[in-house]
């Protein structure tokens, strides 16, 4: 791939992620219908693609994706200025990689959601999924990247995304040595060292040593970065931080752990807020509310979001402060997530039961205290965000929680943000929010009451400060900061003449029977 501007120092940006930026549907005669993803990462890259060459490597997810990759002989093809290469794993291998190891094992571990006395149980099936699924597909990703960039004469910056691809740095170093800069970004929390005892030693060591084959690792918060450094020190005998809380030295390589708080696409949000469909939903929400104040939450249906405790707190609010009865509604816009997993179905059942109990206890026929809408409708969510008086964001743990930023940007009611101290957004927005412990029902009730009775002047001051904080950095700036730091690493390491020895822990984990 030649440099876009003809200069050899123009870097090639390589993104590796489980899900790609486009979905394909085969319509016949080697023709495909292309649908662009709406995620923030796609938005960030659309700006980068105007200045840099971008190669995106992802899994083929659908029959149309597989057909598109096959039609292109498994080679990268340009789609909307992004060169796309789809990896085609076998269906059984993908199921092992995604549904056994990535979700739920790693995801539940990093959100600390396992019921430890009962789960997880690492069985022979788990180890088989590790070897045949997770290791295999991570190697496929690395091989696809290596094949595409091996002969490059310019900087190659590789950004593996999230917990699905923890082993990619190891396999890339094995294939390319220090020819490339590797800088993963983790979208979910990194918990304290004790949480990692859930993983068997060989799995844990493989993940950590692979990440330490990177040049830098990006996290949502400084706390996540600090916990990563401590986890490496705790579990790897040769890992040292030498008094630094933001870097680790391992087998001759110094790896920085850096926070890059992810943000939102401000331009897109403001455009969507004014579109006819959003205005239509806004009218529907306003009519449903009448004169009532709105306590809003917008979340995926997953236990880490703490939806059930939020409902319990709302019920307690109506019990403890009867002056709010008939004058407030809690609207929960919930997006289905992993409904094939039993724990998620059970959680939704409990949510619906609690909401039903609230309405049974307090509804007077004209007033519906709690309303739950299940479905994935972004314009409706934006419309509701424009109207809230209180936005409840109370996750047990979260990488960032962009709802807090989206709501602060588009709200027009001087709404008050109630924010969990365990959300990544706390570190940026906490000073202007009402901060709570996600486990503390009493404090959540008091925060709701305070938010509903707060003087108008204080509400306005907090809302304006929140919006200003969100506007300081959007999704494009988030990714640009990572690219700039990766280029700095390339320049700093350009004179490196030899490749450090690469640990063989992944190989040993592959051969283990558990």
Distance between the termini: 42 Å
Our Rg estimate from Cα atoms comes to 24 Å
Number of domains: 2
In spatial order, strands of the major sheet run 5-6-4-1-7-8
List the helices and strands and how they pair.
Layout lengths: L11 E6 L4 E7 L2 E6 L3 H9 L4 E7 L3 H9 L5 E3 L2 E6 L3 H20 L13 H26 L6 E5 L7 H9 L4 E2 L18 H11 L4 E4 L2 H14 L3 E2 L6 E4 L2 E7 L6 H8 L2 H14 L3 E8 L6 H14 L7 E8 L6 H21 L7 E5 L3 H10 L2 E4 L9 H8 L5 E5 L5 H4 L4 E3 L4 H13 L2 H16 L3 H19 L11 H7 L3
Parallel strand pairs: 1-4, 1-7, 4-6, 7-8, 9-12, 13-14, 13-16, 14-15, 16-17, 17-18
Antiparallel strand pairs: 2-3, 5-6, 10-11, 11-12
Q: Could you characterize what this model shows?
A:
- By secondary structure, the protein is α/β, with parallel strands linked by helices.
- It folds into two domains: 12-262 and 477-511, Rossmann fold (3-Layer(aba) Sandwich), CATH 3.40.50; 266-471, Glycogen Phosphorylase B (Rossmann fold), CATH 3.40.50.
- Helices cover 45% and strands 18% of the residues.
- The protein contains 18 helices and 18 strands.
- It has helices at 40-48, 63-71, 91-110, 124-149, 168-176, 201-211, 222-235, 266-273, 276-289, 307-320, 342-362, 378-387, 403-410, 426-429, 441-453, 456-471, 475-493, 505-511; strands at residues 12-17, 22-28, 31-36, 53-59, 77-79, 82-87, 156-160, 181-182, 216-219, 239-240, 247-250, 253-259, 293-300, 328-335, 370-374, 390-393, 416-420, 434-436.
- The chain has a six-stranded mixed β-sheet, with helices on both faces.
- Helix 3 crosses helix 4.
- It is globular.
């Amino acid at each position: 791939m030649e440099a876009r501007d003809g200069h050899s120092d123009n870097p090639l940006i390589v993104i590796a992620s489980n899900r790609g930026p486009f979905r394909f549907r085969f319509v016949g005669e080697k023709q495909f219908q292309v649908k662009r993803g709406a995620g923030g990462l796609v938005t960030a890259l659309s700006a980068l693609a105007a200045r840099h060459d971008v190669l995106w490597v992802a899994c083929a997810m659908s029959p149309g994706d597989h057909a598109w990759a096959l039609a292109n002989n498994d080679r990268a093809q340009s789609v909307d200025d992004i060169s796309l290469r789809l990896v085609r794993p076998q269906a059984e291998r993908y199921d092992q990689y995604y549904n056994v190891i990535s979700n739920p094992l790693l995801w539940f571990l990093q959100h600390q959601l396992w019921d430890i006395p009962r789960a997880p149980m690492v069985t022979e099936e788990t180890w088989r999924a590790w070897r045949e699924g997770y290791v295999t597909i991570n190697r496929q990703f690395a091989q696809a990247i290596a094949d595409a960039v091996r002969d490059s004469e310019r900087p190659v910056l590789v950004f593996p995304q999230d917990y699905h691809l923890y082993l990619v740095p190891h396999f890339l170093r094995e294939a390319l040595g220090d020819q490339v800069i590797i800088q993963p970004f983790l979208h979910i929390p990194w918990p304290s060292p004790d949480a990692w005892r859930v993983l068997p030693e060989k799995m844990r060591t493989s993940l950590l040593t692979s990440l330490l084959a990177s040049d830098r690792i990006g996290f949502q918060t400084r706390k996540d970065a600090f916990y990563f450094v401590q986890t490496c020190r705790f579990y790897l005998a040769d890992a040292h931080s030498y008094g630094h809380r933001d870097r680790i030295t391992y087998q001759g390589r110094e790896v920085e752990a850096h926070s890059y708080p992810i943000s939102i696409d401000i331009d897109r949000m403001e455009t969507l807020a004014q579109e006819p469909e959003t205005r239509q939903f806004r009218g529907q929400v306003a009519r449903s509310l009448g004169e009532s104040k709105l306590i809003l939450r917008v979340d995926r249906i997953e236990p880490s979001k703490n939806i059930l405790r939020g409902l319990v707190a709302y019920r307690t609010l109506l019990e403890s402060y009867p002056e709010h009865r008939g004058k407030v509604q809690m609207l929960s816009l919930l997006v289905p997530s992993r409904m094939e997993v039993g724990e998620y179905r059970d959680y939704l059942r409990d949510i619906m039961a609690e909401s039903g109990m609230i309405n049974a206890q307090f509804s007077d026929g004209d007033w519906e205290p709690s309303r739950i809408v299940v479905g994935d409708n972004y314009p409706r969510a934006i419309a509701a965000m424009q109207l809230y008086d209180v936005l409840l964001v109370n996750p047990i743990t979260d990488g960032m929680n962009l709802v807090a930023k989206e709501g602060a940007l588009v709200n027009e009611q001087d709404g008050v943000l109630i924010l969990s101290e365990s959300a990544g957004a706390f570190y940026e927005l906490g000073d202007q929010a009402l901060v709570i412990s996600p486990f503390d029902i009493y404090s959540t009730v008091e925060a709701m009451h305070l938010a509903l009775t707060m003087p108008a002047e204080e509400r306005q001051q907090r809302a304006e400060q929140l919006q200003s904080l969100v506007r300081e950095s959007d999704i494009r700036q988030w990714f640009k900061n990572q690219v700039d730091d990766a280029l700095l690493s390339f320049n700093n390491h350009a004179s490196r003449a030899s490749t450090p020895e690469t640990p063989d822990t992944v190989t040993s984990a592959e051969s283990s029977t558990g």
